[in-house]
Amino acid sequence: MNRFILAAAVLASLAPLALAQEGTKPEADDSAALFASPSVLTQKTGAGIYGAVCAGCHMPEGQGAVGAGAYPALADNPTLEFPEYPIHIIVHGQAAMPPLGSVLDDEQIAAVVEYIRTHFGNDYAEPVTAEMVAGAR
Amino acid sequence: MDNEEVQPTRREFLSMVGAVGGAALMYQAMAMMGIAKASPYAGPIELGQAPEGTRVIILGAGLAGMVAAMELRDAGYAVEVLEYREKAGGRCWTLRSGDSYEELGGAVQQVDFAEGNYFNPGPWRIPYNHFGVLDYCSRLGVELEPFIQVNNNAYLHSTKAFDGKPVRFREINTDYRGHIAELLAKVTDQGALDEMVSEEDKALLLTSLRSFGALDEQNAYVSSTSASGRRGYERPPGGGVDGSPIPNEPIDLSTILQSNLWRNIAAGESLNTSMPMFQPRGGMDMIAQAMERNVGDLIRYRKKVTAITQDENGVSVTFEDLENGGASETVTADYCVCTIPFSILSQIEHNFSSQLSNVINSMYYASSIKVGLEFNRRFWEEDEHIYGGITYTDLPISMISYPSNDFFQKKPGVLLGAYSWGATSYQFNALPPEERVAKALEYGAQIHPQYNEEFKTGVSVAWHRVPWVLGCYGQWQDKEAQYQDAVAMDRRVVMAGEHLSYLPAWMEGAILSSLDAIKRLHDVATNG
């Protein structure tokens, strides 16, 4: 491999980690670390949890999907303004959506709610904490 | 209400049945009450005659919908069925060569199996005691063949035991039984059971343990021809010079306990999974196809229901006609059987009772994933002498099920290469189909290295991505509290499907639910 490209690739792969050290939550996508436990999800980052669970129905870009019924889009979704709403739905489920409170812990739910509220065209900067999730259980 | 108080409790009733009628009647009564879990199907339904000109609209052409359509039509109702898909059957579904399946998200899988090979993404086996399914198969001429659920020569496998190598089911099963029989014989001999077991019964217990556990005359479980007669030999019995068998060595108890492989020993002993089981020859949807041949002229395909409303005069159902650019159309009827999964129904406008609405809005659908893998050669038969049955593993694929058809044929075969639930299934669901297949291959190759050489093609169905059901089967937030609210007929509409049964996810549950629903509908239609 071209040495320059290799160096760039290495830098690119390190960049999310560097950001993570400065911010409060790691940004790296650990969704590829699959199946570490048979009973719970083990991904830690918002991007990782989103990619390993949520994207299955709400789709990789949060665009949702439509068949005989629909999975709502998370992209540009004003119902995400208050974090309590997605927290409650993730913990307890809603209609066809299963409750995920038993496969995700408080930190994981906080991380993924923060992720969907700051991605896919959503821009709600208020941090989401594990304590908020604990309060919704 | 007062009447209920003088009725016997369930326990009193059953004791009474047992005293009067003996064990067989007792069992039958328990089965009827759902305790022993055999199907309470009591033969073909006899509704009687429909009131002149009574119309019933049925929503959904899965098994529940088609059973309702057949029986109501035969009773003289004017029946119409609306179905979202281009074909009938619902989750009673088979993928074959030439089929194309588009899941939510847009990924399309072209099924490229060899002629005659197939994969059942949904139901894949019929218990012998699911009398409703079996009776409809019989009445509709669906040919059934054995489904091999239990195969002692399949494997038990753990990544954390026996260096990650699979062990034959027969070895774990025989050794586990042998060791526990020996332990029980020891404590019996030591007098530990004296207060619980009479002298006479102790002698019988020891005799039975020798038989149950393949113990020797000293009640020990050791290398012997009787143990090897079950678990396998170092050198099996043959003919001629080297004909005499050489027994092999059992695995010690601690190793078996630590391996956790005992977990799946009883997998084939529940009423729903014990031998004999059956499958339709050629794929599970042979049942759906047979029903569709019977009742297909009543089904209108590719109609997406958008609203269901009822008043004192009847039921109106509005749908988008996908055959006609999504044009909106409304049909009316006197009554409605709604088999639409609650995952979909919760998104459809309706004016059902608040109790029913609450259940519809709170039922979520389970995540489940299956992968079908086709191999050029039936290596599990040719190399490993596994003819049907199931290998259980702690890998994310959970199991490998070998085909129960086309034994010994020199042609490609299709395995169920993954069948997973829960957290594992969520993660499979988030992968594109080809990566699910790749993962199933990667994991399965740890049990069968031949995977790498022989793989031909694969297909996967993640049930949360199935556009017309959004999950595998209905799960209740609180079944005990909600069940009667959901099954009760709501004026002119009654719900039916596997989700409204105590055999959830089984075809029998869908059929029993439907038969019970139309019986009550008919009662309302004839008696008001």
From TrEMBL, chain B:
User: Which GO biological process categories is it annotated with?
Assistant: amino acid catabolic process; auxin biosynthetic process
Q: Where are the transmembrane segments?
A: 12-36
Signal peptide residue numbers: none
Return the Pfam families for the record.
Answer: Amino_oxidase
Q: Under which EC number(s) is this enzyme classified?
A: 1.13.12.3
Q: What does the record give as its pathway?
A: Plant hormone metabolism; auxin biosynthesis
**What InterPro entries is this protein classified in?**
Amino_oxidase (IPR002937), FAD/NAD-bd_sf (IPR036188), Flavin_monoamine_oxidase (IPR050281), TAT_signal (IPR006311)
Which enzyme class, named as a word?
A: oxidoreductase
Boundaries of each Amine oxidase domain copy?
63-517
Q: Name one GO molecular function term.
A: tryptophan 2-monooxygenase activity
Catalysed reaction(s) here are:
L-tryptophan + O2 = indole-3-acetamide + CO2 + H2O
**Coiled coil where?**
none
Where in this protein does the record put region Disordered?
223-249
Keyword annotations from UniProtKB, A to Z? Auxin biosynthesis, Membrane, Transmembrane, Transmembrane helix
Concerning its family, UniProt says: Belongs to the tryptophan 2-monooxygenase family.
What name goes with this protein?
Tryptophan 2-monooxygenase
Q: Which organism is it from?
A: Devosia geojensis
